Amino acid sequence: MDVNDLRSAVTVLGLLLFVALWAWTWSARRQRAHDEAAMLPFAGDEDRQIDESDRRMS
Predict the structure, then answer these.
(1) How far apart are CA 22 and CA 38, in angstroms?
(2) CA angle in degrees (0–180, nearest 5) for 34-35-38
(3) Cα–Cα distance for residue pair 58/55, rounded to 1 Å
(4) CB–CB of 23/15 below 8 Å?
(5) Helix, strand, or coil here: 1?
(6) How many structural domains are present in the chain?
(7) Which pLDDT belongs to residue 1?
(8) What is the pLDDT of residue 27?
(9) Phi (first) and psi of residue 44, to 5 degrees
(10) Residue 43, by phi and psi: left (phi above 0), alpha (psi -120 to 50) or beta?
(11) pTM for this model (two decimals)
(12) pLDDT, tens digit (0-9, with 9 covering 90-100), for 1-58
């Protein structure tokens, strides 16, 4: 077994890992997690609006 065989094996393992992670990420079971992550930038906007209105009243 020379270095090129080892390099080929690492390349194939890397490709298999990439495909497995891609399939896991895009599976239908992860849809809810993706929807929650998509709403993260908007989380807490209501709290900020309430805090700003409290500051204006003070």
Answers:
(1) 18
(2) 85
(3) 5
(4) no
(5) coil
(6) 1
(7) 82
(8) 92
(9) 85, 0
(10) beta
(11) 0.57
(12) 899 999 999 999 999 999 999 999 999 999 999 999 999 998 886 655 556 666 666 5
**CA–CA gap between residue 26 and residue 20 (Å, rounded):** 10
Q: If you search the block for the tokens 């497995």, which residue do you land on?
A: 20
Range of the structural domain that residue 38 is part of? 3-57
What DSSP line would sit under 2-58, residue for residue? -HHHHHHHHHHHHHHHHHHHHHHHTSGGGHHHHHHHHTGGGTTHHHHHHHHHHHHH-
Amino acid, res. 8: S
* The two three-digit tokens of residue 51, written as one number: 């805090």
Task: Write the single-letter amino acid at 14.
Answer: G
